[in-house]
Amino acid sequence: MLQTQTEIGTAAATETKHVALMLRISRDKGENEDTLQNHRETLSEYAANHGLTYDIYAEIISGGITEIEERPELQSMITNIEKYEAILCISLDRLARNGVVSQQIKQLCIDYNIEIITPAQTFDLSNNQQDRLLYDISSTFAVLEYETIAKRNKLNKISRSKRGEHVAGSVPFGYSRNKETKRLEIVEEEAVVIRYIFKLHASGLGAYKIRDILNEEGYRSAKGKAFSLPSVRRILKNPAYRGAVVFNDRKKVKEDGKYVYKVIETYIAEDAHEPIISPSDWYKANDIRQARAEHAATHVRERPSKNAHSMLKDLLICGCCGRKSLMLKDSKSAEVYVKVCDYLLPNSTQKCGNAGMQLRYVIEEFADFLERFKGETKKKLAQITSNDTSSIANDLVTKVAHIDKQTVETQRQYDNLINLAVEGIFSKKEILAKKQELTERLIFLQQTREETQTKLVELDVKSEKDRLREIIDILENFDGEDVITQNEHLKTFIKAIRYTRKMPSEIKALSTRNPARRNYPFKLEIEYI
């Protein structure tokens, strides 16, 4: 996964043209970073010879992807398209091998009068009908070629998987892939860990406890990282450990407005390689795992139903690790709890450990905050009305500082994505989704900071009056609304509510019935939009 890079080519001519230099290679075609570098050098030389300055957008991803949102670099280029006079690429198929995406790029170039430049030809799509026709023909051939290659590759993978070869996905921990036979072979020092995991599971332990034991005893993944909860669960479910090779033939379909992959047929080759876990033990472990999952879904605690919707839904996040706080309902008492945070801290074997709390106490504290906030908002409105803007200025300065703090934390999470990808904690699709989420978050923070700085300079009193009156109106009628409406209203001026209840070890060691532990305080911090 590559990050966006920006480079400036030296101009040989007096008048220069600023372009977007788009690089894309596909691992499906056996291409690698060397190919990407070759394309970069070719286009950089072309730019220098033709007096072009440029920003580089580089990605290693299939051009047949149907959604621009799944190509963050292309999407970033489109967002910044007004900065450029042309798009520079090796060939048209490097922009896209999907008809829908190709036509979206074409229309974008027409709307913004953007040329597409390749070393062989320049396409003036806005002003030249022949160029538009050539573009459509070239794009059609690119799509047909992609579909032919994809179909041939899939049939080849199906045939090889039936023979027991490992043809898809990363090599499971505990195995290596023989380059000649294409089959999995046991790596004994890693296989010891796999057997230990299944042994712990057979003794009655769940994935949470297994993860903690592995990390406490110093076991590490193939990449030398701490074991995560998803990685333990994937190991327990992976049929490779019983000696099977599984290939899922998937098709991308649209459901509820979103594209998802559906498995249309599964090919399984048993006894494809030497098992680390005997098939009987593997099936027994997965029967137990499935039974536990079904039991957990109907006993002890469950997610609140729609009728148990909280005003804090999607707003409450962990103040220690930044992940979304979960709310669970006790099936016996019907009490809803903020669940203890069991996520691992970033790049650590230590669990977050942010303690839980009955949700009603959190809501009571938040209700007190809202009452105070309403009074403060009314006071601000009165000050503005009397032309005293000092409180607004102070709030804006505080907001800028808070945005800067959030930007640093979000950038840290973005930079950590590469480690998560290498470690294999998340799938490629999950990494892309998280990257897009964090990119949008950084853009949002940057825009919010710029808007706040502008407000600080201009102090737009009228718009601020309107905003404060709207918030006051919401809070005046808040108690009479149902929780779903309350939640919708809160999201108009609150970005997040950070919940923190980090107990010292001596308090945590006490019984849950001990008053010192039961009454240990929590803290709420509000992040405004």
TrEMBL record:
PROSITE patterns: RECOMBINASE_DNA_BIND, RECOMBINASES_3. PANTHER family: DNA-INVERTASE FROM LAMBDOID PROPHAGE, SERINE RECOMBINASE PINE-RELATED. Residues 18-164 form the Resolvase/invertase-type recombinase catalytic domain. The lineage of its organism: Bacteria, Bacillati, Bacillota, Bacilli, Bacillales. SMART domains: Resolvase. Residues 428-455 form a coiled coil. Residues 172-295 form the Recombinase domain. InterPro entries: DNA_bind_recomb_sf, DNA_bind_recombinase_dom, Resolv_N, Resolvase-like_N_sf, SSR_resolvase. Keywords: Coiled coil, DNA recombination, DNA-binding. This is Recombinase family protein.
